[in-house]
């Protein structure tokens, strides 16, 4: 496996990790995987922002049990009656309501990038998990020698980057967000790394953001 293929595999593992944070309540197997990956990350020097966020999350994982994390997930992302429920979609954070113009622009991006979502998916297209899945799809395409870096740059800079930042800021003001705030901080640090990598590779966004 050459250096480029190794980088692709590393990126896909990171994206899969972040999807697993926000996809469902963790079971014992998922928690063990998180602990293993975060333990390994604390031995690396990646960026100051990412390293700090990884250490904080690693410490939280060592102290919290599965029931506590699952209860927080339910309060933040599942319980429709929770006053702390978080709608983790780009439209909600950028436009102030679901199904806004950001969703329209994002669906246009998906069409141009050739990404088709499964019809049985119930989440909004511009949800955090589905955006991460779209990024993984574009990164995976590079393994088949398809150049998707410009599409990756557009996804990260126009949609996923702003969503990650707004998501982290919202959880900072949410009194019930403790563990998942740390997840959001690590996610934002990673998306910043993705943006820097794409910039270093010369990826460009050819379609300007709409105001």
Which helices and strands occur, and which strands form pairs?
Blueprint: H1 3-23, H2 28-41, H3 48-63, H4 66-78, H5 90-94, H6 101-113, H7 128-142, H8 149-172, H9 179-200
Comma- or semicolon-separated keywords:
single chain, mainly alpha
Structure description:
This protein is mostly helical and 211 residues long. The chain has nine helices and no strands. It has helices spanning 3-23, 28-41, 48-63, 66-78, 90-94, 101-113, 128-142, 149-172, 179-200. Helix 8 packs antiparallel against helix 9. The mean pLDDT is 92.
Low-confidence stretches: none
Strand content: under 5%
Radius of gyration (CA) equals 17 Å
In sequence order, what are the helices and strands, one letter per element?
A: HHHHHHHHH
Q: Could you provide a short overview of the structure?
A:
With 211 residues, the chain is an all-alpha fold. It has helices at 3-23, 28-41, 48-63, 66-78, 90-94, 101-113, 128-142, 149-172, 179-200.
């Amino acid at each position: 496996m050459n250096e480029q293929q190794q980088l692709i595999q590393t990126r896909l593992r990171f994206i899969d990790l972040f999807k697993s944070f926000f996809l469902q309540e963790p079971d014992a197997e998922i928690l063990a995987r998180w602990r293993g990956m975060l333990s390994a990350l604390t031995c690396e020097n990646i960026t100051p922002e990412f390293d700090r966020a990884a250490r904080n999350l690693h410490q939280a994982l060592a102290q919290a049990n599965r029931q506590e994390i699952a209860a927080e997930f339910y309060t933040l992302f599942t319980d429709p009656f929770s006053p702390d429920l978080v709608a983790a979609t780009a439209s909600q954070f950028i436009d102030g309501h679901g199904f806004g113009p950001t969703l329209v622009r994002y669906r246009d991006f998906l069409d141009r990038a050739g990404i088709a979502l499964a019809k049985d998916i119930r989440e909004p297209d511009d949800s955090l998990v589905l955006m991460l899945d779209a990024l993984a799809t574009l990164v995976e395409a590079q393994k088949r020698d398809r150049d998707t870096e410009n599409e990756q740059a557009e996804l990260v800079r126009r949609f996923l980057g702003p969503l990650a930042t707004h998501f982290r800021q919202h959880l900072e003001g949410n009194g019930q967000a403790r563990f998942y705030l740390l997840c959001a901080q690590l996610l934002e640090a990673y998306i910043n790394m993705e943006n820097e990598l794409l910039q270093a590779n010369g990826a460009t966004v050819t379609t300007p953001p709409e105001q």
